[in-house]
Amino acid sequence: MATPADFEKALALIDARIAENTAALEAAMAEAAAAETAAVESELAADAAEEEAADADADAETDDAGSDDTETDDAGTDDAGSDDAGTDEAETDDAGTDEAETDDAETDDAETDDTAATAAQDGALATRSARLEQRLELLNDLRLVVQRNAALVERLGESEREQASLQDRLEAAETEGFALEPPFPVSLLDQARTELTLRRSLAEVAATRVASAEQRQATTERALTTAIRERRAARDRLNAAEAEDRPASERDALADALEQARLGELLARQQLAATERSLELARRQGQLAELEQELLAERIAYLEERAELPRDFLDTRLQELQATKAEMQARISDLQRVGDQAEADLYRVRQQLVEANGTAEQAALEEWAAARQDELSAARTGVDNLASAIANIEQMERLWQQRYQLMHDPNALDLADLLRELIMETTAAIDEKEAIESRLNALRSIQLAQTRRLRDAGVSDDVREAIAVRSAAHDLAERDGRELLETQEALIALLQGMRPQVEALVEEQNLSLQLLQAQETLADWWEAEVLVIDDQSIRVGELIMALVMFLLVLLFVSLIRMGARQALKRRKTKSPTANVGDLRLALSAIAGNTSQLFVLIAAFFVAMVFSGLASPTVKDWLWNLLIVAFYIQLGIWANAAMADYFNRKRTRKEMQDPSTVTGYGVMMVFIRVGIWITVVVSLLAYFQYPVAGLLGALGVGSVAVGFALQNILGDVFSSMAIILDKPFRVGDFVKTGDTLGVIEYTGVKTTRIRSLSGEQVVLSNSDILSSRIHNYKHFKERRIAFRIGVVYQTPRALLERIPEMLRESVEEQSHTRFERAHFAEYGDFALLFEVVYYVLSPDYTIYMDVQQGINLGIHRRFEEAGIDFAYPTQEVILRRGPAMPNSAAGESSGG
After folding, report:
1. How far apart are the C-alpha atoms of 269 and 326, rounded to whole Å?
2. For the chain, percent helix, then strand, then coil, each to nearest 5?
3. Parallel, antiparallel, or unpaired for β 750-755 and 760-764?
4. pLDDT for 786 beyond 50
5. CA–CA dist 399, 418 (Å, integer)
6. What is the pTM of this model?
């Protein structure tokens, strides 16, 4: 194990690496800053040079312009030779201009190269700085993990020393007892028991910590594996770069990556070591908790023999309880006065709230009303809590007196009844404690909500003051609830302290010395040898045990079968036709289908094994025989249960639907075959027989049969689906596809339907299930909507009366439920009214009778009111226009 000196050396090395990388990072940052400053100065110098060059070009252009003017003035007087000289000077100027442009281009190329070099240098500095920062982060994390490992090692040492100390104390307590001076009051015993309960809770917490530490260890192991893989990959990349003689910058980058991967692996290893030490520390803490529990148990056993309850201690305890009770009674009186005052204030605030209805003060008054209500509730709840606390104190007084009598004169008490009372009272007290804690938690939630409202800046001063009053009331209620909780916990502690004492006394009264003497007498006779077979002695006890076990198994099975028969008979007598469910299946299978051979094999196996008469070889043979018999019995039970279930179901269904007989028979065949195939395959698999080939052959055969009988099997399974899903039954009026009629029979392959025209339609089950089925048998009620029209000449007063007439016409018919009647729209030739109602019967004849009665009622009422029904009419309007001139002339000439 690492020592503190080792951790100090590791921390010193890590600090040195941190300092080294910090200095390198600062140098890189300084270099980057210097490079940035040089780049800025270079840009400024280049700008200045460009400005100077621009000024020089401007001066040159001015000189050229002057020369040109002079040459222009002398052009009239100079001869041809002078013209040639001017031409030569112009060519010289052009050559100078070309050279200047060439120099400018070279300058631009140099500046571009400098810029690229500067950018590359900046990128390299940035990459180096980022790597140094990552390395510093890893080093800092590594330093923290090493420090944690050092702390864990120290804690492990402390826990080891503490464990050794506790072990020594426990051994000393077992041999020498505890160095305690009398007297030993019973309160010391109660305190030890309470501490033991606390230590048990801490042990459970330690077990949870161990589980969490194991999960963290698995996570860190995976992280270490990943880090090792990354380090190896970085090493391989660097070796490949060196073998291929890549640029130095690339090799340096790969070397930095390898160094970072090594740091990551080292960090992962240290984290794994930390998690392992944390797991060890959690386990040590669990062991410490167990040792502390053993030590406390020894202390409790030591105190149980010596604890005493003197009279003066009892009187002092009773006086304390009386004083507490008197104080609570005084507080109850104060709370009653506070509640009365709060009730009066609440009445006054409600009166003010009624007067201030709709004013700006209403919100504040509402809040004050809630505050006064909370004050009243807190006072009344406080009274109830203190009254319950007083009841707890009175119960503790009684228990302390019983405890005194228990420790001084236990024979005067009925210990069994006392123990029963203690158990019941403890359970009730614990339940009441949980209820009190639940109420306090709810009250605390209300207080938190009020606190959040007080922090709201938009709340007015009046509302804030009312909220503060409500918070004070909640605090008062919480204080009284906490006091009740304290008395409840004290009561539970007293009950739990008395229970072990009573239990010990009850056990002492039930011991019998005669039983021990009889046991010693029979021990010698039980071990006597009867005979020896193959150097194996058979004793009386073994033979008796074998015989008893054999008879017990037979008796047990017989009782089970008898009980199953009796239960099955009672169920049949009580309800011979009811569906009794899965219990009926189990009872019927056990009652009449348990093989006697299986029972004998099981009884012989149990007798031979539990008596010790069977050798290992015989035991293996008997076990294999029992397994074969058990699997066969399972198949018999399953077949019997399925047969009973389907027979009862078929009998009930046959009364409703005779066509189900065929379907259930087919299902039973498939189920029986499936059960025995499952039994055989399971038995072969148990004995590790290679069943893969068998299953493959069965699968291929099943596929071949399925392809050969595809249509037939499709109809067969469709009939099973019809039986199980029940989309229709015999006698239902259905529509499937274009066929409409009554179901007459459902067979294995086809279903027969009697159509409305009288012929019988035979359809395959697959075709029926693949189409939509309209089953009119389940038609509950019929919704009817129809329209009626009246002529446009109907007066408005009569139009307003028509909906009422329609409603009366519907409601006067039986088997109807009126929904609505409205003037729906203006039609082409009539004013249309729409009526909607329900016929409360699926019978079509009843519907037609109802509709006829409604139509006659409407006709009668319209006739009495003088309302005319509308019928399709068309009005033709002929207009005579002015005569055409040509037409008039023709008529006159014709005359």
Report:
1. 66
2. 80, 5, 15
3. antiparallel
4. yes
5. 10
6. 0.41
